[in-house]
Amino acid sequence: DDDDDIPQLSSHTLAALQEFYLEQQQREGMKTSQGFNQYSIGSIEEDWQLSQFWYSDETALCLAKEAVLAAGKGGRIACVSAPSVYQKLKEQDGEDFSVRILEYDRRFSVYGEEFIFYDYNHPLDLPENLLPHSFDIVIADPPYLSEECLQKTAETIKYLTKGKILLCTGAVMEEQAAKHLGVKMCKFIPKHSRNLANEFRCYVNYASGLD
């Protein structure tokens, strides 16, 4: 039988897939009915192949508020590989700050001039108009839990920031985070919209509201 060579999905996998597609259709329907806001978390779906895991709404809001506070009036904020914080910042109408998103995923180019294509493998391959030490705070969430990824992202962070750093990464990266960025773990524990296998934490190098 020619069909023997065709791989068959288990009933469990099939059910999970159907549930995923149903959820996706419901989300698309909600976007239409709610007068879709391009800045809301989930408006761009996670791409797991790019190691994308969005924060929960509460976590993104908490980090966004912390960034605004740390940046100060008229402050400049850079979000490096942290699009869900960027999206939450854009929801903060009337707040006096500016923000840029540095991201590998070109779907975020819908945000126009605020989007900057970023590949951590080339940490200083940045536009000429992105001046050194021009951001009051940099929020970064390196896509991979490896020292190489953190070290390269750290080069970008140190180039951009005037001093303040808010790093989100795994608890296992505590030693490397201190080594490469001089940041310390906060009491605040960030949550994701989907549960991750690795314990996640926030790190800062200034007196923050996250303790």
UniProtKB/TrEMBL annotation:
Top-level taxon in the UniProt lineage: Eukaryota
SUPFAM superfamilies in UniProt: S-adenosyl-L-methionine-dependent methyltransferases
Keyword NADP among record annotations: no
Catalytic activity annotation: L-lysyl-[protein] + 3 S-adenosyl-L-methionine = N(6),N(6),N(6)-trimethyl-L-lysyl-[protein] + 3 S-adenosyl-L-homocysteine + 3 H(+)
One Gene Ontology MF term: nucleic acid binding
Subcellular location, principal: cytoplasm
Keywords, ordered alphabetically: Cytoplasm, Methyltransferase, Transferase
InterPro entries membership: DNA_methylase_N6_adenine_CS, Efm5/EEF1AKMT1, Mlase_EEF1AKMT1/ZCCHC4, SAM-dependent_MTases_sf
Biological-process GO terms, alphabetical: methylation
Pfam families: N6-adenineMlase
Subcellular localization, as worded in the UniProt entry: Cytoplasm
A GO CC annotation given for this chain: cytoplasm
Name of the protein described by the UniProt record: EFMT1 methyltransferase
Protein species of origin: Certhia brachydactyla
